[in-house]
């Protein structure tokens, strides 16, 4: 499964968590969206927000987008 460690970068001797075979199903677009959210948050809250916090925000926004998409398809 995906947890916050997916956002940790390797240090040269260790691989990135996202390179683990269990995480190969993650789409590049999803990782990029999470990285974009991380960049926005770090501008507002440097050194305060954890990787877990970023994933919570990304998940919330994904659910929000699905709800908006479904509502638009039902009513329009």
From TrEMBL:
In the record, the note on similarity to other proteins reads: Belongs to the peroxidase family.
Task: State the top-level EC class.
Answer: oxidoreductase
The EC number on file is 1.11.1.7
Q: Which InterPro entries match?
A: Haem_peroxidase, Haem_peroxidase_sf, Peroxidase_pln
Cofactor(s) annotated in UniProt: Ca(2+); heme b
Listed PANTHER family = PEROXIDASE 25-RELATED
**Plant heme peroxidase family profile domain sequence ranges:** 1-63
* A Pfam family hit: peroxidase
Q: Which free-text remark accompanies the cofactor?
A: Binds 2 calcium ions per subunit.
SUPFAM superfamilies listed in its UniProt record: Heme-dependent peroxidases
* One MF term in the entry's GO annotations: metal ion binding
A GO BP annotation: response to oxidative stress
Enumerate the residues binding Ca(2+).
1, 3, 5, 17
Q: Which reaction does it catalyse?
A: 2 a phenolic donor + H2O2 = 2 a phenolic radical donor + 2 H2O
Q: What organism does the UniProt record list as the source?
A: Trifolium medium
Protein name according to UniProt:
peroxidase
Listed A to Z, the keywords are:
Calcium, Heme, Iron, Metal-binding, Oxidoreductase, Peroxidase
């Amino acid at each position: 499964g995906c947890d916050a460690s997916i956002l940790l970068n390797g240090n040269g001797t260790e691989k990135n968590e996202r390179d683990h075979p269990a995480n190969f199903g993650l789409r590049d677009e999803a990782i990029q969206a999470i990285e974009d959210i991380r960049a926005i948050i770090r501008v507002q809250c440097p050194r305060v927000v954890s990787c877990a916090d970023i994933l919570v925000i990304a998940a919330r926004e994904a659910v929000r987008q699905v709800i908006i998409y479904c509502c638009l398809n039902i009513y329009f």
